[in-house]
Design brief:
This protein is mostly helical. The chain has one domain. The protein is about 75% helix and about 0% strand. It has helices at about 1-15, 15-35, 40-50, 50-60, 65-85, 95-105, 110-145, 150-165, 170-185, 210-230, 235-240, 245-255, 260-275, 280-295, 305-320, 325-330, 335-345, 355-360, 360-395, 395-415, 420-435, 445-465, 470-475, 480-510, and strands at about 190, 195. Strands 1-2 form a two-stranded antiparallel ribbon. Helix 10 packs antiparallel against helix 20 (about 395-415), helix 14 runs antiparallel to helix 15 and helix 20 packs across helix 21 (about 420-435). It is globular and about 65 Å long. The N and C termini lie far apart (about 70 Å).
Length: about 500
């Protein structure tokens, strides 16, 4: 009951005019920051961090600035789906998985259904994670501490397995795509020795590695544009967008078919968000893979499955709250964005850690209360702006294609301020187009680029510490996860054998 009363007090403080106004402004700013390719929550929060000093001086405390930044974070998580659906370009790395089915829905003239599903799934994911955060913060923080390098690598292996085992009909091409992505993620300097590796033709631009947004914007911006031009689908499918109230209510009613993906994304997203250095991007990709694995209609994934939109959107919003928990209770950022938020807390004289809840309750509970307020404001603003987002799809294709190209270039340059990355993004886009032409799945490569920098150091550090692979099977948490991953990897090899046995039995009965 003490937690409930503390939460109610926190919500009342978050509803004070100044704090509520900051939450609304933060959500709207975050929504457009998240929708802008190349920015995302990390850059948005970092850019707006200096502005919070003004808020701090006006309010006289750290609560209002933190509420504003948390609202920006929430809005950006919602906004990432907008450009993923409307333009086929992920607004941020957290929305890459949304593109897999959100864009096909838009091309089918059902963008309003995709955007509504994304908004409602985001609301559900954030609400569930807020409740879990409020009720179980100390206990869940201790669980996160039990995850060492072996457990984190086992979790990454499970993510790869969801795509290798169930990522497509051609398993060989799926595995090749994963390996190709892992090779690209290794470009740069060795994380242990510091030696350069895979610097193609000794080009120094590769020394910082192939950055994820370069790959994501290239594949889902440039490659999608080239693919659409090549197949000549633009004018006939994209322009047919219904923005009436009836279509909005229809989209809301369709969301009931996405309950499975929403629950998977909400639960898994919060859990992955708890883990240090994981964040919302791996959570969304893993949720997409598991939603596909458990779906009765897995073949529809990648072609416009509503669960394929709901699962990653619920996951990235759930993970954003989950990542706050280790930041506040342990002083360990759970994602790049929470690392920026952690810096803001330290600047304002707060000390994140186990004592924060007992020594600074006047800061903690209003901030947690603002999570609920910002989430509610975000879903209302997002739904209200859906007709505006759909308007982008009604533009003539001759305008839309150049716009996608310009946004891709500007987004990449704004993220890294480096023309080498812009040219590399274009090259990656051309390569992604040819991969699609040859029916190679690009999603597993994107997954590998995201998870490779997490999987490699955890694997190598585990082997350096334990000097044996058996540690992944003998530890109580890592063992079951590793066994599940091995099962999913072997599943495609077992399926044909089972089919042959069943076929042989059926033939014998026929005789």
């Amino acid at each position: 009951m003490d937690i409930l009363f503390s939460l109610i007090d926190g919500i009342m403080i978050a509803l004070q005019p100044m704090n509520l106004g900051l939450a609304i402004v933060g959500v709207i700013v975050g929504l457009f920051v998240g929708a802008m390719p190349g920015l995302g929550s990390v850059n948005g929060v970092a850019i707006l961090l200096p502005f919070t000093f003004v808020i701090h001086n006006i309010s006289g405390g750290a609560t209002s600035p933190m509420i504003f930044l948390a609202a920006v974070y929430y809005g950006a998580m919602y906004g990432g789906a907008i450009s993923s659906v409307a333009l086929g370009i992920p607004g941020a790395s957290t929305a890459v998985a949304t593109t897999f089915d959100g864009r096909p829905l838009a091309l089918q003239g059902r963008a309003h259904i995709a955007l509504m599903a994304a908004a409602l799934a985001s609301f559900a994911g954030a609400t569930i994670s807020n409740v879990l955060f409020t009720a179980f913060a100390p206990m869940l923080a201790s669980v996160a501490l039990d995850f060492g390098n072996p457990e984190i690598f086992a979790l990454m292996l499970l993510a790869f397995a969801t795509f290798a085992g169930l990522g497509g009909d051609d398993v060989a091409k799926t595995i090749f795509s994963i390996c190709f992505g892992l090779a690209l993620s290794a470009v740069g300097f060795d994380i242990i020795s510091g030696e350069p590796r895979l610097l193609f033709f000794d080009i120094q631009g590769f020394s910082h590695g192939i950055r994820f947004l370069v790959l994501a914007i290239g594949i889902y911006g440039i490659a999608e544009m080239l693919w659409t031009l090549n197949s000549a689908r633009g004018d006939s499918s994209i322009s047919k967008v219904d923005v009436s109230f009836a279509s909005m209510f229809e989209a809301m009613s369709r969301f009931r078919h996405a309950w499975r993906g929403t629950l998977i994304g909400s639960a898994l997203g919060f859990f992955v968000g708890l883990l240090p250095a994981a964040g919302a991007t791996p959570a969304s990709l893993m949720s997409y893979g598991i939603a596909k694995m458990t779906s009765r209609d897995s073949k529809n994934f990648g072609k416009g499955a509503l669960d394929g939109v709901a699962a990653p959107e619920a996951a990235n919003n759930s993970a954003s709250t989950g990542a706050m928990l280790p930041m506040m209770t342990l002083g360990i950022p759970g994602s790049p964005t929470t690392a920026v938020l952690l810096a803001g807390m330290v600047i304002w004289g707060l000390e994140p850690g186990p004592l924060l809840f007992t020594e600074q309750p006047d800061f903690v509970w209003p901030l947690i209360g603002s999570f609920y307020i910002s989430n509610f404001v975000a879903v209302l603003v997002n739904i209200a702006f859906i007709p505006l987002f759909l308007w982008m799809l009604r533009m003539p294709f001759t305008i839309l294609v150049p716009l996608v190209f310009v946004l891709s270039v500007v987004g990449t340059y704004a993220a890294y301020m480096n023309m080498f990355d812009v040219w590399l993004m274009v090259l990656v886009g051309i390569g992604g187009f040819f991969m699609r032409m040859m029916n190679y799945p690009v999603a597993p490569a994107v997954l590998a680029i995201v998870l490779g920098p997490i999987a490699e150091p955890t694997l190598r550090q585990t082997l350096m510490q334990y000097e044996t692979f058996t540690v992944f099977l003998t530890r109580p948490i890592a063992g079951p996860i590793t066994i599940a991953a091995i099962f999913l990897i072997l599943l495609p090899m077992v399926r044909p054998l089972i089919a042959r046995i069943r076929g042989g039995r059926a033939g014998a009965k026929g005789i």
